Amino acid sequence: MSNHDVAGQKNMKGVAVSSGIIIGKAHLVDRTKTKILYKYLINDEEINSEVERFENALLTTEQQLVRLKNGMPEHVKEHSFILDSHLMILKDSMLKDSTIKRILDEKINVEWALKKSIVAIRQNFEQIDDDYISNRINDVEYVTERIFRNLSGKDQRGLDTINQRVIIVAHDLSPADTTELNVDRVKGFITNVGGRTSHTAIMAQALDIPAVVGLEAITAQVSEGDILIVDGSTGNVIINPDDNTILFYEKKKFQHEEYKSNIARVSHLPAESIDGHRISITANIEFLEEVAAVKSHGGKGIGLYRTEFLYLRSKGIPDEEELFEDYREVAEIIAPNPVTIRTLDLGGDKFVSKIEMATEMNPALGLRGIRLCLKLPDIFKSQLRAILRASAYGNIQLMFPMISGLQEILDAEQIMKEVKDELDHNNIEYDHDIKTGIMIEVPSAVTMAETFAQYVDFFSIGTNDLIQYALAIDRINEHMAFMYQPFHPAIIKMIKHVVDSAKKTGISVSLCGEMAGDPLCLPLLIGLGIDELSMNSSAIPLSKRVIRSLSIKDARSDLKHVITLGTSREVRTYLLDRMKALLPELVEKGYLHGM
Amino acid sequence: MELNKKLKIRNKLGLHARAATKIVKLSNNYKSSLFLRKNDQVVDGSNILSILTLSCPKGTELEVRIAGEDSPDFMEKLSDLFEQKFGEEI
């Protein structure tokens, strides 16, 4: 559909990342930084009013922080020290007095003066050897950004204050934004940037709400409170639709939900091909609250528990007890089925608010995943202890992300051993046979798979990152999103190599990227002989439906054919034709994404 | 009245935000002024950013000076805070 106006109605097209149709009101979330302009003050009157403006902004900021602090629920009160430290920064002479002095001495506007103060503070902090302390500069920046917003009269609404069911319209949503999101208030997401595997997409699929990303300038086109239709199956977004359009989409929405519930009704059945080949379908989760959805969607356990959530909240680094309680609860609910907990995978595209890091030119290639954990052994150990302790209460497996060489496996194992010794020493129970695996998501790990297989209990192929690293495509960049191709023959061959290496050594292998939940990929993955597919809960019913209509014999011959093809397009066309023959309604109605 | 004492940072993380917050909070309860010295750098103990920029990892020994009428009680409470590792590792 092209972008054209029909009597006030505006049609836009983006990348469909989470299926479903939603009609609702727009809520704009402005996450752009305030622009700072330079102004020279000509007389004392101007200077005085500028100082007054600064003091008013400080007062407003203080009131906001106090309100935030008082509004914290009882059980997180112990973390309110962060807000206390923000309040202190606000009154600190390095910030307050020096800014006023600059306004008076240099006759410059408050924004410029404040910016200069921050630069000076930053220089002070940069000289600190201790990374943990020097990174507190981010707290200073958080506070000053708030002051800037108050100076410009900008709205301070956080995502936590939404009280109506709305469709979120944003430039992009960072993991930090979504952690403060009141999820049951959100009906859908639309964003300017992003691709199939951006955080917004994963989040929307996990919540089972429609999302369209990569709309480029949607934040400029939509006004607060506009009526929107979001079709997460086709990528169409309609602003202020006319009555006929609304009727058309109401009907489409009804059909979509009906089809979905038909599939859901059989989702408790095993994922077994028509000729008896069984595969384990598990779920990717990010927080405890999703566990119920795993069970109701027919997941046989959790193949990927992303543990970053507890670290991303504004409350600070969680302590071992908090982590333990969380892991234990998940393990107990899912038992006897397994829960695979991935150790902290921060860095890269994840904004880190507590374990703060210097701005990296190329975060995807920087200090992230296991690299960060090995650099911060105390934080790593506390998580490992929590996981091991929780393993006494269910069927827990542990895996390390971003492994690129054998040394990292050895180093991580060494730390594991230290933690186990400590637990033994203190007579604390844990599962002594806990299985430990690694994520295969860096090309070097693919090449080394045969060697690695001798050191670990299982592999889990993380295709989201693997595709990004192997094809040198930034998955967040909307201009490159079209080149981010799971069907690239190189990717299929890499996965095959990993699976073959695992089989040779006799260890199990799972796949936990978005590919696992893509119906078109399923014949290939089944044909490869992967033991387990882990996907967003909402994708489980449809995946089972597809697997239960396949035969392993056909899947193997599909794989054999596909492996000879040279381009993604050929692979995709072939698989699409196969799917059309298998489940025509799926292709025709555009339900292929994250349903 | 002026008191001087050497205090050692004993908690694992060093004098980071949470610990510094506690020092500033404590100092807000007293009329006396608090100064922390590390090598040849002296900072105002009621300023959180100044404390942080002093950069004190575990093991750092600080020369603490408290000047004012209520300095004895202040020094006692401050020493307790250091001694108890800022309430972080019990």
Structure, described:
- The complex is a heterodimer of chains A (595) and B (90).
- Helices cover 46% and strands 14% of the residues of chain A.
- With 595 residues, chain A is of the alpha/beta class.
- Chain A has three domains: 5-30 and 158-254, 3-Layer(bba) Sandwich (Glucose Oxidase, domain 1), CATH 3.50.30; 44-151, Enzyme I, Chain A, domain 2 (Orthogonal Bundle); 266-588, TIM Barrel, CATH 3.20.20.60.
- In chain A, the strands form two sheets. Chain A has a nine-stranded mixed β-sheet with strand order 1-2-9-8-4-5-6-7-3. In chain A, strands 10-11-12-13-14-15-16-17 form an eight-stranded parallel beta barrel, surrounded by five helices.
- In chain A, strand 6, helix 8 (199-207) and strand 7 form a beta-alpha-beta unit.
- In chain A, helix 1 packs across helix 6.
- The longest helix of chain A has 27 residues, at 44-70.
- Chain A is globular, with a radius of gyration of 26 Å.
- Mean pLDDT of chain A is 85; it is low at 1-7 and 351-355.
- The mean pLDDT of chain B is 88.
- Chain B has helices at 17-28, 48-53, 71-83; strands spanning 2-8, 33-38, 41-44, 61-67.
- In chain B, helix 1 packs antiparallel against helix 3.
- The radius of gyration of chain B is 12 Å and the shape is globular.
- Chain B has a single domain (2-87), classed as Histidine-containing Protein, Chain: A.
- Chain B has 90 residues and is α+β, with helices and mostly antiparallel strands.
- Chain B is 34% helix and 27% strand.
- In chain B, strands 1-4-2-3 form a four-stranded antiparallel β-sheet, covered by helices on one side.
- In chain B, a hairpin with a 2-residue loop joins strand 2 and strand 3 (41-44).
- The chains are: A alpha/beta (595), B alpha+beta (90).
- Chain A binds chain B through residues 81-82, 84-85, 88-89, 92-95, 121, 124-125, 127-130, 132-134, 136, 139-140, 316, 378, and chain B through 12-18, 20-22, 24-25, 44, 47-50, 52-53, 55-57.
